[in-house]
Amino acid sequence: MKILGIDPGLDRTGWAVLEKGGQGGAARLLASGLIHTSKSLALEKRLDAIYDRLVSVIAANTPCVAAIEEVFFSKRADTQANTTHARGVILLACEKQSLPISAYNPREIKKTVSGNGAADKVQMQKIVQIILGLKEIPKPDDVADAMAAALCHLRLAPLRLAMKNATKRLQIKGNCPGSRFSGSTVGRENI
Amino acid sequence: MKILGIDPGLDRTGWAVLEKGGQGGAARLLASGLIHTSKSLALEKRLDAIYDRLVSVIAANTPCVAAIEEVFFSKRADTQANTTHARGVILLACEKQSLPISAYNPREIKKTVSGNGAADKVQMQKIVQIILGLKEIPKPDDVADAMAAALCHLRLAPLRLAMKNATKRLQIKGNCPGSRFSGSTVGRENI
Predict the structure, then answer these.
(1) For A35-93, what is each residue's pLDDT tens digit?
(2) How many CB atoms lie within 10 A of CB A179?
(3) How far is B11 from chain A (nearest CA, A)?
(4) Could you please report the per-residue DSSP string of chain B?
């Protein structure tokens, strides 16, 4: 099972491919990298470069799922807008390559991987280094964050699947009238 | 000269193609439409649908430039994030089709088209109707906003070009040392 972790950003998008199945079912790092785009380019050209590079990364590494950080709500509106534009084309690149996506918010990733939702960047880098048995601290932090997103998915995906199946059973039974579990969640298709 | 105006949104993206060159150089509407995606679909599937539909719109209408609204900073963070994700794939669709992009903020569009940067939706719809000589008020307002973006470009593009040329002349002369006009504005290419 290969997981592509992604930490989206317009200046820097970190990515990492992990595989589960090492000794004792441990995760190991297969590949990682940073997609950097220059501030001197127009927004659309930077988005195009991120999209193309990510498509190449997916083709070269053949992951079976992508774990992507949600956008952190920044006080700086321009930073947040840049990251969200980039995340749009990242999601599209995965979808075009038929790669299923799981999204996790930064706090959820920190809490799941380190046990502390407010862990700082250095703590996260050190913990990721230990879990993956890396010789050096993963740098820059965008790449370490991508590894953490993939590790988070490895831990949470089985729980999410169990929750989904439990919800499905409740829906079939229809034993929660008026609750969010009652009836079908599938709406109209208007595309 | 055909202009594609776009009002980005995840639920609804309005688009309109205008042509300049009617009687007295007036703009006329060639085509318009709404790309609607269902809330019941996953974000990546909605982005994929917007991208594909917009690529089809560009191929069918062969515009020579796109005028796209910038994201309006909403108090609702989720709405703003949705619109920005959509805008990311819209910019990518234009770039992949080699369509140059001009971006305008909503206030700039209102001010340029109606003379009032705080014009409401109904005022804008009525003004767009009059300028384009439409029999009926353009609806929904996402489509009217796309028409307004294209009209804004028609008025502002010649001014922007004149400003750009003036800046270029100042740069060549190098007569503004230390100012934003001194030296080259082309930075390093790091993609």
Answers:
(1) 999 999 999 999 999 999 999 999 999 999 999 999 877 777 888 899 999 999 999 99
(2) 9
(3) 10
(4) -EEEEEE--SSEEEEEEEEE-SGGG-EEEEEEEEEE--TTS-HHHHHHHHHHHHHHHHHHH--SEEEEEPPP--S-HHHHHHHHHHHHHHHHHHHHTT--EEEE-HHHHHHHHHS-TT--HHHHHHHHHHHHT-SS---SHHHHHHHHHHHHHHHHHHHHHHHHHHHHHHHHHT-STTSTTSS--------
Structure tokens at B146: 């796309």
| Residue A5 dihedral angles phi and psi, to the nearest 5° | -90, 140
Active-site position among A19, A44, A48, A69: A69
Inspect the interface and report whether the beta carbons of B189 and A47 lie closer than 8 Å: no
Which residues from B are below 8 Å from A48, CB to CB? 92, 95-96
List B13's β-bridge partners, or say none. Answer: B35
Q: How far is B186 from chain A (nearest CA, A)?
A: 6
Is there a contact between A187 and B38 if contact means CB atoms under 8 Å apart? yes
Q: What letter represents residue B93's amino acid?
A: A
User: Is there a contact between A40 and B88 if contact means CB atoms under 8 Å apart?
Assistant: no
What is the percent of chain A with per-residue pLDDT over 90, rounded to a whole number? 70
SS3 A62: coil
Residues in contact with B94: Cβ distance below 8 Å, sequence separation at least 6, in sequence order: A44, B54, B58, B66, B68, B100, B101
Task: Spell out which residues of chain B touch residue A191, defining contact as CB-CB under 8 Å.
Answer: 36-38, 41, 46, 49, 53
